[in-house]
Amino acid sequence: MDWEDFRTRGKDAADWAADYHAGLREQPVRAQTKPGDIIAQLPPSAPEQPETIDAILNDLEHKIMPGMTHWQHPRFFAYFPANAAPVSVLAESYVTAIAAQCMLWQTSPAATELETRTCDWMRQAVGLPDGFSGVIQDSASTATLCAVLTMRERALDWAGNRAGLSGQPRLRIYASGEVHTSIDRAIWIAGIGEANLVRIPVTGPSRAMDVTALQAAITADRAAGHLPAGIITCVGGTGVGATDNIAAVMEIAESEGLYTHVDAAWAGAAMICPEFQDIWAGVARADSVVLNPHKWLGAQFDCTTHFLRDPTSLVRTLAIQPEYLKTDGADGGIINYSEWSVPLGRRFRALKLWFLLRAHGLDGLRGMIRNHVKWAKGLAGLLAETADFEIVTEPMLSLFSFRYAPDGVADLDALNQQLVNAINADGRIYLTQTRVDGNLVIRFQAGSWSCTAEDIATAFDVITELAPKVAAQMSA
User: Fold this and answer.
1) What pLDDT does residue 323 have?
2) For residue 333, what pLDDT is reported?
3) 313-342 pLDDT tens trace
4) pLDDT confidence of 171, banded at 50, 70, 90?
5) What angle do CA 108, 87, 54 make, to 5 degrees?
6) Which of 33, 122, 194, 323 has the fewest CB atoms within 10 Å, measured from its CB?
């Protein structure tokens, strides 16, 4: 294919994309294939000779698409959303065509400076104060790893990168059991070790970290000769939306001199609505904050905004400047965002966020989020009033959990797992499960870009229609 061929095929691809999205409601949300179905249709070796684009597109339609779960489906109520607003998809096509490597200011000055400006727009939108600086990472997992590495280096007086961890005191990092497993991975990768991630119990309806237990754990570790390094909090945890008392945690962090990271990957998007900002009161005192515009705001994956009260510690942890990465005559007066990230290579992620914020405006994005929150609360209310259903965790923004618990069922965990399986096999909606205090529950979150009130009504119909059928099958 040359660029003249691309001119035609690119227009065809745009038509295909529009048709795909227009027809999503008629598709089952989750792929209905079995393990191995797709790979069995694919040749074991790459072709030696070129194949036609028509042949490739035919295989895309008939071999690949049947095995795709439709994350942009309006009734995708599982996990968290991974939205792709049309304007973001459009922007990504420009990014792909330009194909810039944006690791340094000089390798694409516009990419760096647009990232600086767009991150500051987001900072203002979510209510973070002046003084915070932002960088766009690929995902919250990377932002968390950056924060953990900074905790490590800061606690070791910057000796970890140079001398390694051998012979150093045992570093300790604190988080509740409600945080995302990306925290575990960051601890592994940073060489701190899973045994040194101290799990603090949770308390209250928001399942917040128990700050009394947090203080006791830090005090005990110091007495044992360990070295506390940082605290990781969550706002809208993945399981059921657990949210720490950020202000109370910051009091302890400041008194103990510990670096803090706030994981608001999903819920942080809702902070563009001023009425929700009390959820993370105290966040202005955190060192590091992450939220994902590629979840609830409609930016195409990947696009994570990572905010730092003072980026100096992060840059000191990650920056490395061989001669071939220096910008002669400009060092000190520019930002090289590769020094704020684990990878050296960087995509032009700011463009899609810039397109999105301009095309929809903050007010348009607020309207979408407010609808999702309202609809999820309405569904939770309907289920609470329906016989044999119980709300296990009340809505945190647009996320809640519930359980089907008819009388006479010995194994409610098995029943609810079978209900999730039946719902997803049905195809009209997609849900996932989690555990609360050891019990299996069903999660629901509203967040799809194209979701409507009618889609929420469909969710209620599917859940209440299938639940008694599953119970009857299990008791037969």
Assistant:
1) 58
2) 75
3) 999 998 877 655 666 555 567 888 888 898
4) very high
5) 90
6) 323
Look up residue 240 and give its two tokens: 């059921």
* Number of other residues whose CB lies within 10 A of the CB of residue 3: 8
DSSP β-ladder status, 208-209 and 202-203: antiparallel
Backbone dihedral angles phi then psi of residue 16, each to the nearest 5 degrees? -60, -45
Q: Of residues 410 and 207, which shows the higher confidence score?
A: 207
Tell me: pLDDT of 162 over 80: yes
**Cα Rg of the chain, angstroms:** 24
Q: Which pLDDT belongs to residue 43?
A: 92
- Chain segment 71-108, per-residue pLDDT in tens: 999 999 999 889 999 999 999 999 999 888 888 888 88
pTM, entire model: 0.91
Q: How many CB atoms lie within 10 A of CB 205?
A: 10
CA–CA separation, 185 and 149 (whole Å): 12
Task: Between 293 and 335, name the one with better pLDDT.
Answer: 293
Phi, psi of 218 (to 5 degrees): -65, -45
